[in-house]
Amino acid sequence: MMPIFTADKPVIRIHYIEDNLIDQQALTRVAQKKSLPYQIDLSSSLAEARSRNQMYDLVICDFFLSDGTILDLLPTFDTRTPVIVVTGQADLNNAVTALKLGAKDYLVKDPEREYLNLLPIQIENLLKQQRNERDRKRLSSLLFSVGGAIPFGVYLYEPITGSVMYANNAFFSIWDFDTETSESLLTHDLISRQIKTLLKYEGDDLPMFPLGEDGISGIARSGEVRVRNSKTIRYYTDRIPIEPGDPPCYVSIFEDNTALSQAHEAVNDYSRRLEHLNASLDQRVQERTQQLEDLMKKQRDLIVNIGHDLRTPLTPLVALLPYLQHNETDGEKKNTLRVLCESTMMIRSLVEEILMTENLGVEKSAFSQRDTRPCDLGSMADEIIEASLPVISSKGLSIRNDIKPGMMIRIKYIHLHLILEKLINNALQFTEPGGTITLHGGKDREYTWFCVSDTGIGLTHEDSSRIFDDFYKADASRSDLLSHGLGLSVVRKLVLLNNGHITVKSDGLGMGTRFCVSLPDRSVRSNQPMWD
After folding, report:
1. How far apart are CA 272 and CA 287, in angstroms?
2. CA 359, CA 234: separation in Å to the nearest integer?
């Protein structure tokens, strides 16, 4: 045995069966001269060769030996080990017989022994083919072991040779091949022609690489194709990395994408219908909005016209009735004139509040900060309380203003006056005799806020949620026309017109009420302040 090693290549174990000593030495010299990584075991006869129980990467043997020919030994070799037969006689029949019995190559010894220079090349080619075949078998085994468990169709082929390396059951199922047909379709050309007949559109490319002149295609690709039975199949095809000199190999993955494609089409159809519906709804909303604006304008015009029509006959009544009452000496007539005078004043007040409510809607679009000016909140509250002293005294109420003079806020004077006046009058109206009314306020960031609290009749939860609605009366039992249900509605509209906030809180009937208003010092919205 003569071992030969190199630093960077794996050792190739060779069984050399040769009875000629010169030929034995010739091979070892070539191996040493070219630094080939060969480890050579020598046998000089068939008997000696049979006695070796080792595995080799390669067997090289002479055809004629002292105790027989290699034909007697070839059937006993491991089929996984490639065999090269060398002989000094170029006999075609012997070569064919040796190849049939399992030899991989047949070389003729020439007198100059040039075959020894060719031998290393043949050894390398044979071992490379063996590795490729082993890798292919491993891949095939792996594919067959897992291919049946995956829902995707897998298809491997060599375009140059036209051979199908592997196709799993899912592939044949996706493309609707029956079992008998699939077993007979052994070439890529036949399978491609069959698939071509299934495509819905003749212009569609095959979901496998088209072959160029050299049988090789360039880059990976993916896409979808429609099949005549309304099936949608998604595919991906790519070239498998190979060693230089190996034939190109491609793998195609197929998936039945019909359900997903149908879902996408349904979603797209729904989206189109939704877009059409939205466009139709937008148009209808615009039409209805315009109709509502027209109706609201007509309503405002009607209310304003009615208000002016009512105000005209009320003007002389408001002027004359108090005069007649004052000069009447008859007690019964004087009392009648008093009732008429109060009713007329109430009607005039109602007309004025209705007109004011409608005017606020018009004023909102034309409102500007240039219409505002600094107002003293504390002093204005004192003035309103002073004007209300007759009512306060007649009911025996206690009222306290904790808002100090000098607390300024920029707002339209009439707006602030109306807000304070109506909140104070509401407290006076719904606080029982002997009750208490309190005003307090302060500054919080960009807001000025104030609250009007009373110990009056209080509110239910429903009353609190509707107290700012037009014409809503919390005390439905009252029928003396002291309230029209518009005062607090006007207050809320004035507060919102000035970018403010208003809240109401009551713990229930008989527990009093507190109204709190916050108004910004500038016409800029900010976070709602926290009340004291």
Report:
1. 23
2. 68
Return the amino acid letter for 3.
Answer: P
Give the tokens for residue 452.
Answer: 């009007």
d(CA 382, CA 371): 24
Q: Which of 412, 411, 414, 433 is nearest to 422 (CA)?
A: 414
Largest CA distance in the chain: 168
Cα 193 to Cα 196, 206, 207, 218, 226, distances in angstroms? 5, 9, 12, 22, 16
- N residues, the chain: 532
- Spatial separation of the C-alpha atoms in residues 235 and 207, rounded to whole Å: 6
Q: Is residue 526 classed exposed, middle or buried when 0-12, 13-18 and 19+ CB atoms within 10 A define those classes?
A: middle
Q: Say how far apart CA 77 and CA 59 lie, in whole Å.
A: 9
Beta carbons of 45 and 70 less than 8 angstroms apart: no
Answer for the pair 484, 428: CB distance below 8 angstroms, yes or no: no
Q: Which CA distances in Å does 406 have to 288, 372, 382, 423, 430?
A: 49, 17, 12, 21, 29
Mean pLDDT for 113-118 is: 81
Q: What is the dihedral of CA 412, 414, 415, 416, to 10 degrees?
A: 90
Number of alpha helices (DSSP H) and beta strands (DSSP E) in the chain: 14, 20
Q: Where are the alpha helices (DSSP H) in 203-257?
A: none
Digit-coded pLDDT (tens) for 191-250: 887 888 888 766 556 666 554 444 455 567 788 888 876 788 888 888 776 666 667 778
Span between the terminal Cα atoms of the chain, in Å: 106
Task: Choose among 49, 42, 40, 58: nearest CA to 76.
Answer: 49
* Residue 314 · residue 348 · CB < 8 Å: yes
